[in-house]
Every structure is written in C-alpha cells, then in structure tokens.
Amino acid sequence: MTSTGIFALTATSLVGLGLFSVMTNPQPLRKIIAFNVIGNGVFLLFGVVAHRGAAAGLGADPVPQALVITGIVVAFSATALAVALLLRLAKQTPLPTLGTDDGSDGDLA
Amino acid sequence: MALQTQTTPDGYLLILAIMLPVAGILLSLIFGRWVERIALVLLALSFGAAAAVFAAVWQSGRPVIYVVGGWAPPLGIVLRADGLSAAMMMTAAIIICATGAFAKGEFAEPSRQAEARGPLVFWILLLAIWSALNAIAVGNDLFNLYVALELLTFAAVPLVCLKGSAATVRAALRYLLFALLGSILYLLGAVLIYGAYGTLDITLLSGRVGAEAVAAIAAALMTVGLLAKTALFPLHLWLPPAHAGAPAPGSAVLSALVVKGSFFLIVRLWFDAMPGLLTMAAAQLLATLGAAAILFGSVLALRQQRLKLLIAYSTIAQIGYLFFLFPLGVGLAGSDASGAAWTGGWLQLFSHAFAKAAMFMAAGLIAEALGHDRIAEFSGVGRAVPIPIVTFALAGLSLMGVPPSGGFVAKGLLLIAAVRAEQWWWAATILVGGLLAGGYILLVLGKALGSADRPLVLKGSPSRRRELIALTVALAAVVLGLVPLRSSQLLEIGRLSAVGVALR
Amino acid sequence: MTRPELWLGATLAVPFAMVALCLARGLRDRMPGLLMLAPLPALVASLSVADGAQMVLPAALLGLTFLLDVPGAMLLGSAALLWSVSGAYAHPFLSGAAHRGRFATWWLMTLAGNLGVFMSADLVSFYVLFTLATLAAYGLIVHDGTPASRRAGAVYIALAVLGEALLLMAFVLLAAGSAEGSLAIRDAVAALPTSPWRDSARALLVLGFGLKIGLVPLHVWMPLTYSAAPIPAAAVLSGAAVNAGVIGLIRFLPFDAGLPDWGGALAAAGWISAFAGAGIGITQTNPRTVLAYSSVSQMGLIAAVLGMGLAIGDASAPQAAAFYAVHHALAKGGLFLAVGLAALSNAGRLWPVLLPAAVIALALAGLPLTGGALAKSAIKAPLGEGLAGTLATLSAITSTLLMLHFVHCLARSGHTPSTRAPPELVISWLAIAFASIAVPWALYPAVLGASLRDALALGTLWQALWPLLVGAALAIALGRRAHRLPHVPEGDVLALAERAAPALRKLAAASERIEGWLRQWPVAGVFLLVLTIALAATLLAGR
Q1: Is the Cβ of C521 closer than 8 Å to some Cβ of chain A?
Q2: Within 13 Å and on the Cβ side, how many CA atoms surround B177?
Q3: B199: nearest CA in chain A?
Q4: Are the beta carbons of C519 and B178 separated by less than 8 Å?
Q5: Which of B14, B119, B410, C340 has its CA 20 to 30 A from that of B194?
Q6: How many domains does chain A have?
Q7: Residue B1 pLDDT grade (very low, low, confident, very high; cuts 50, 70, 90)
Q8: Per-residue pLDDT, C133
Q9: Confidence at residue B335, expressed as pLDDT on a 0 to 100 scale
C-alpha cells in the first residue's frame, strides 16, 4: 500500500472515530475534542489530495495546502468559541451537559 | 456557454457589500463606546451597497462579477451576484436594517461611560451576520463559501446566549456543536470534490462534474452537513431552544436569515455547481423530509405553551416548504412549471423571512409588555398592546398562505408547479400545512383577542417606534403578495442552468 | 371613467374607505351610525348598471376584473338591501355597547368582501374577496365573547378554512389549465373540459362552495353560528353571506354545456339537505336554530335546482336559482330581525311582530301572493315535472311544517317584560318585511320574462296553496306529539366529530414524545449518517 493510501485510510478512520465520539459522548468537552479529531482527519485528507494532484516539479499541489491552513484557523476559532461557552456553562451549572437527556431546557426566558 | 470570468464595471460593489459591515466591526472594536452609532451608520451604508447591487443586476440583466485580485479561477476566487443573489442580499439588507432600528436603544445600559458588553457584542454580531450573508450570496467558490458559512455560525451562536442564563448558554453550545458537525461534513465533501475535479469554483465545476460515484458521495456529505445547519427534520434538535432563548431582535435575524443561508448554499450546490447530478429519487427524499418537517413542526407548534417556542417550531415547519423546490424545480426541465417552482420556492423563503422577523419582533414586544410569553395568559393582550397583535396577524397571513401576502403567492406557485408535475402528494401537503399553520396562528390570536377575566397588569410599555418597525416588516411580507403569479424574470438572471436542470 | 365603472368601483371603494376610517378610535365608535350607508352604492349599481358592464383595474393593481351579469346583479342588489337594513337595525342594537367600534369594523370588512364577490370576474379577486368575507365574519360571530359564541366561532373558522383550502386548490387547478395563463373566470371555466384535472377541479369547487352554502354534512357550522352571533350579524350572514356560495356555483359551473354526473351529484346533495334540514329543524326549540336548519333546507333546494340545470345543460337555471336566493336572503334576514324584535318586545305586544313574521315565514314555503310563491314557480321550470317536481312539492310541505314550528317557537321565546322595542328597530323590520314580499314581484317580469298575469292565475295560486294546507295539517297533528321528538343537539354531526378530539390529542402527544426522542444526540447522529447514505444511494441509483 502506498503512503498516500495509508494516509487516506488514517484520515477516514479519524473522521469515523471522531463522528462516533461526537454522537455517543455526552460530555461537551469530549464532543469538542472529537470535533477536532474529525477536523484533523479532513485536513489529512486534504494533504492526500494535494499529494495525488502534484504538478510536475512540485512535491504537492499548493492549493489544498492553502485551504488546510485556512481550515486550521477556522477550526481553532471554532474550538475557542466552544470552549469559552463551555467554561461559561461550567461556571453556572455544577455539571455541564447539553441537557438533552431529561428533555427539559430549564427557563429560557 | 460563455463563462464570464472578468470583473464587470460594477464589480466593486460586491466587495463593498461584504467589507462595509466588517469595517463597522473593526471601528466598533476600537471605539467601543459609540458602537451603536457606528453600527447604525454602517448599516445605512451597507444598505446602499446592497441596493446598488440589486439595481445593477436588475437593470443590466446579467450577473455582476468581481475577480478577486485579478487572479482567475481555478487558482483565484470569483465573487458573482446573479438575480438570486441580488434578491437575497436585498432581503437581508431590509431585515437587518429593520432589526437594527428595532434594537436601537434596547441593549443600552444607563449612565456607563465605559463600553458595555451587551450592546458591543450585539451590534458586532449583527454586522458580522450581514457580512457573512453577503459573502454567502455572492461567493462562487466552495471553500470561500465554507469560510462564509462558518463566519455566519460563529456570529449567530453568541447571539443565542446574549442573555447569559445557563439554559441559553447550553442552547448556544448545542447549536455550535451541531453546526460545526454540519460544516465539517461540508468540508469533507469539498475535499472529495477538489480531489476529483481539481477546482472548487462553481462556474468551472458546472462544466466538469459528471455522474460519478465520488461526486455523489461528496454531494451527499455536503448536503447533509448543510441540512444540519438548516435544521431540516429530523436534524432540527438545536433550533427551538436556540431561537426561543435569544433576545427578540436576535431571534428575528436567526430565524429569518441565518437558517436560510445554508439553504441558499444547498440550492447553489445542486442547481449551479453540480447540475447534472440530481436524480428524482434524491429530490423526492429531500422533499419527503420537507413534508415531514411541515407536518411535524406544525403539530408541535400547536402544542407549545410559550409563544417564542411556538414561533421557533413554526420556523421548522416553514423551512420544509423550501425543499419542495427540488422535485418541482427539477422535474420539468425547460417548462414554465419549473420556473413557477423556482419563483415559488424563493418567494416562500423571502416572505417567510419577513414574516418570521416581524413575528419574533412582535413576540418580543408582547413579552416586554407582559413580562412573560405564556400563551394561556394572553387574554386581553389584544387591547393592551394592539399593534404587536396586528403585526402577528399580518405575519400569520403569510405563514398560512392567505391572500394578500407573499406566502399566498409562493404557495400558489408551488401548488401550480405540483399540479403540472402531477405530484399530487406535495400539493396535499402544502394545503395541510397551511391549515395547520392556520391552527396555531388562530390559537394565539384567539387567546389574545379574547377579553381578560381580570385586568391585565402591564410590566412595561413598548415604544411606539419599535411597534411600528415590526408592523412595517410584516407589511413587507404582505406587499410581496403583489408580485404577479408567474415566474419572475429577476430570479432567472444569470442562472447557470438557465433552461432548467434536467433529471438523469 | 364611465358611469358603470363609477358605481362598480364605489361598491368596493366605499366600504373599504370606511374600514380605513375605523383605524381611528373616535371615528370607529361613531361608525355604527353609518353602517346602513355602506352598501348603498352597491344597490345603485345593481339597479342601474346594464347587463355585462365591466370594470377592469389597471395592471398595477393586478388587472382585476369586475363584471355584473343578471344573476350577479340580482344577488348584489338583494344583499345590499339586506346589509343596509340590517345596518340600520344594528345602530340602535349596538348603542352604548362596549365594543361597537370593533363590531362595525368586522361588519364593514365582511360587507366589502361579500358585495365584491358578486361582481368579481377573475380568480384572484374572487378568492381574495371570498376569503375576506369568510374570515371577517368570525369577528362578528364571536362578538359576545360567551363560551357558546366562541365554540361557534371555532367550528365556523375550522370549516371555513377547510373550505378556503379546497377552493384554493380548485382555483389553482383552473389557473393551471387555462389558456395563456388568463385568470378570468370565464376563460378558466371554458378551458376546463380540455384540462387533465377537470374532475378534481369540479369536485373541489362543488365541495368548497357546498360547504359555504351548508350542504349536508358540511352544514354543522350553520346552526351554531346563527344562534350565537348577534342578531344583525345572523341576519346578514344567513341572508347575504351564504349567497356567495350560490354565485360561486353559478359562475364556476358550465351551465350552457351541461355535466350530467356532477349535476346529478349536486342535485342529490341538494335534495338530501332540503329534507334533512327540515327534519332536524323540527326537533329544535331555539327559534334561531330552527331558522338555521331552514337555511340548510332552502340552500339545499337551490343546490338541487342548480344541479338539475347543470345535468341537462339548462342555461336558465342560474337565473331561477338566483331569483330564489334573492327572496330567501330578504326573507331569512327579515325573520332573524323578527326574532331579535320578539326578544325585546312585551309578551302581550308580540302580535305586530308575530303576524308579519308568520307571513314571511310561510312565504319561504311558497304562500300564494307573496314573493315566495313567485320564487317557487320560477324554479319549477328547471326542475321539471318528474321526480324532481314531486320532490319540490314535498319540500314545500316540509318547509311549511318547519316554518309553522318556527312561528310556534317564536311565540314562546323569552322576552323581557315592560320594555319597548326602539322604533328604529321596528322600522327596519317592517322595511325588510315589505321588501321581501315586494322585490320578487318587481323582479319577476323583468328578469324571468314571465308575465304577472300568469302568476296571479287561479291555477297557479292553487298549485302553491295546497302543499301549505297539507303542511299545516301535519303541523297540527305533530303539535300534539311534539315532546316525543328525539332531541338532536345543535350541529348534529358535530357531536360525533367532537368525540374524535381525544384521539387527535393522543396523536399530538405522541408527536411530542417522538420529538423528545429525536432530541438526543445519538439519535440525531444516526440520522445524519443514515441520511448521507440514503442520499448517496439515491444519487448513485440512477447511474
């Protein structure tokens, strides 16, 4: 199996593992980390695509590299926002969950 | 088909439309104390830019294009405003300016010299949402659209928890995580597309995409990701608490515009980027989810005890109508039925935007007057605060599809298209949806117009200015009903698949 | 602007202008005094505008078209007269009442929609005005705010909205099938036979308009509404508003071409309503409910006439049916005003109200020398001599029975002692009573082309009289056994429907449980994956 193939497989498994984690872990922090894992899988996939699309003379296609950098920034800001919200929630409630299990959302007013 | 990749003379307007709100954000960060004034000035300027784009597209009859940096695709990014973009930008402009006028003074904290957190955050988020919406409307590159989509989500999420209570923070976090899931799926699809076709520019893709497996999988991933952000049944779990927990002007913008941004992208994907890919089965699947959303959302809206939650569930239901665009707009390539479906679906989006914004504003005014929004205790509200109730009724006309209103013309066009396409089940669903909408609207109105057993104690009195602004937005939804009952010329300008998308 | 256009325009413009004036609270409270003036342009228009005159609005206002033909003019004139007289009744009726301004606003909106429907010649204006009249009537019905009127309002609005949905679908089908996208009613109806959706369109039209005129079993809103609404509102709703359904049937069904199946179905539904209405009406004790069931019965008769005309392609059936509807509107409105007067009059002084009321009531059954007899003879021609003729005579007998029962209930209805009815109320009552007898006489030769001498011939008089004598005999026989009749609740079929309510509530509760289940992340996540796979599969399947 070529290295590209290994990376592609890794990327797919990262995405799969991340998705599974997001769905099944009830704690928000774990969901955030799982989202980052998915993100890393997608960026790795970008790298695979770059490697496959290499033009003559270049080691890899530069466009996906630019996209990955932007993507990393976006994922970083997303994580920062999510963690900030989580910290705020943790300050207000003793056990921060996303509140879907008991079906009630408390007082939204 | 000649693909224009040259900047048109009025192309700079597109950059203005995106960057003026950003300029407002930057100025507000520097001069935090005057955020409201800065925001209002920039809102007016951006309205001018959006109106200029609209006028340019309408009068010239061809799309406005701007090639960023002069670098043509596939390496560069193109901004392209066709008729649909122009209409979307105009709607967003009107609603956001109305929301700005509505929210003026709402977040002000008395006698504080230093910048206050509430108003600063609100106005910056409002400007950011507008900038993101404009970027989504004119973006022609899939990755650029991803960034715009993320900007929209990041700007919308803090709006949900502006009030700061634990429940709203929880709702915001849930919204953020689900939306992020959606956008990462979208990105995954974009990667696959780039890997297969070597470009992410929509105009170039429309020529290159064929019916391959990788395109199908990528399209499926992207669509489902966008569906999660549009809150289509059954992926709507985040919407009711988020939209109900936000402050009134925030809910107005969230329900009216933010969920429509991702829908706009879905249509761009199917009709412009990958026109040859849609099958009837896939279109029927999307429309079935839409029908389920209509029925489910309406029934749940009937059961709600709080007005804002009722309106949020109504949003879930009305979003379902938009998905009838797929089987009806696609099934009859080249006939005027597809034109009717195209105009009807988009008119539904625009009139729902106005109606829902007006409704949330009215709900906010009522809650301000009463101190709560429990529907069961609404008796006598009609006499206490008549103008918000009239606003609610006018907006409800559009949701029910009662003439004269934009909702009536939209549903009429969709019905005509369904009849011509011989897909009776969608016609029946549209009618049942209208009846159910009538149910929950009349439920609220009936309660409000009834006389109170004991006199109502008003906790506050909303200002006349804000009542009139909400009424004007509702009237806009009614005025849309004066649009003639056939396909619109404006929405056909610059469509890449101008003769209608053919089914495989 | 030519003369006809002026009056047609004023018919709509004046009520709408008055509605606009109602936005100001001071003017709103003074509006009840002006209610009787609002329909006057319509009255002038119906009398003076020549047959076929039309008014086309400019394209900026969507190019709506208004047209006045003979049936439309007759219905417009009678409706305008009824609205005007009832408006005159409403003024003293409402004097000093708390929410008279609100009542006046709903009144004017219903009036505008109702009068406009008779003139409308294109699909859009017809639907808009029809909807306006139907929905604004809700405000009139629930004016009292009592639980009974709220229940009546809820049933009314539920069925009204259903009717609107059916008609909307029918109009969409008509529009979709019409040539060159023309929205004129005439073009759409002419294009219908060649359209692929003609059966559905016709079914929806008959159902939608049938609901409006109260064909069994869609009649359940009538008894509740007419007994709960305030008296002047009940008068106009039962007299003028139901005629919107009649004009709809006249305009949208092809009477020149003829439709045997649909005509037969409409006629059958009409006959069933005619007899069921009378049958259930006899068991009621509230005079208003008896009048409501009488409306069901009379509208059924009109539907039967239209149905028979449609079945054989008789182009004169619409005029005969419209003539009958004119008399019914005036008489029914008058009878409701009489009920209101009786409630206000002293027990001993009931005769001035009771005697004319009895005459008007029997006129509905076809009392000779009244307008009702003319109406009955007018519809004799389309009905023919066979089975339909016999049924018509039978329905005259049952109507007599029902009307005598009504007079009996009216005589026994409660009245407040030692109050005198305001003279204005008496004047308006006498005016409408006179009109209901005189107007058909005036219209008969002009519209139906038959001679008055034939109408006054002894043979015709006896033809009209003997069913009444039979009915009177039955009434006397039944009077002794009145207490043995079964008790049917108001809105008969509705009681059955209301038993279905708990089942619907369980359905809604089940939806909430499903929603709670969908809220959980694992479920939503699974749906995400399932949807992706399903979408990909449907995309790949066509390859």
Answers
A1: yes
A2: 33
A3: A63
A4: no
A5: B14
A6: 1
A7: very low
A8: 92
A9: 61
